[in-house]
Amino acid sequence: MIDPQAIIESTRARVAAECLKQPVLSCQAVILAEELCAAVNRELHGRASRMARPELPEVELHFAKIGLPQGEAVKFHAHFEANGWKVGRNPMKSWHHASTTWKANWQERQQGNGHLNGAERVQHNRELQDVTERMRQIKAPYMDGIVDWTPSDREKFSKLKARKIELKQILGIKT
């Protein structure tokens, strides 16, 4: 019987040795490691019709190959281990393809133009309400047209208006 842990440790050692030679993982080292990890999974899980759940070292190697940091590999593995390797209510068919989506989401977060989470959306909505209220307060004394705008009020109002437009863009509200 194959000792899966011994193969995983051997794979790690061989990849580490290869990494010392070259700063970037060579394709041969990654392919060798993935083949060994696949062999371990086949031994552990057999040839069932279900997807073989990858071990963390296998995920780490794949993430290194596609250019994601090791921390993302750990998060990915922990996330799907926690939910039983399911997508919604359905069993995952290919973790390699799921890692592609994970990478796209990671890149969006890195660029800062990703989707807002709930807390960010609430924070931006509150700021939008505050900005709108401050604009109303500054504008109120000048509504009847008797008094001219002071330069400082005009400047404050202009800055608030620019921030309001920016917040609406962030929140996806048409202006």
What do you see in this structure?
The structure is a single chain. The protein has 175 residues and is mostly helical. The chain folds into 2 domains: 4-111, no CATH class; 118-171. The protein is 69% helix and 2% strand. It is built from 7 helices and 2 strands; from the N terminus they run ααααββααα. It has a two-stranded antiparallel sheet with strand order 1-2. Strand 1 (86-87) and strand 2 (90-91) form a beta hairpin. Helix 1 (4-21) packs antiparallel against helix 2, helix 2 runs antiparallel to helix 3 and helix 3 (56-66) packs across helix 4. The longest helix has 22 residues, at 118-139. The protein is elongated and about 90 Å long. The model has no long low-confidence stretch (mean pLDDT 82).
Descriptive terms for the model:
two-stranded antiparallel ribbon; 175 residues; single chain; mainly alpha
Summed up, the domain count is 2
> Major sheet: order of its strands?
1-2
Alpha plus pi helix count: 7
Shape: elongated
Query: Major sheet: size, sense and barrel closure?
Result: 2 strands, antiparallel
Structural class: mainly alpha
- Give start-end ranges of low-pLDDT stretches: none
N-to-C span = 67 Å
Q: Using the CA coordinates, give the radius of gyration.
A: 27 Å
Query: How much of the polypeptide forms β-strand, as a percent range?
Result: under 5%
Mean pLDDT: 82
Q: Tell how many strands the DSSP assignment holds.
A: 2
Helix content: 55-70%
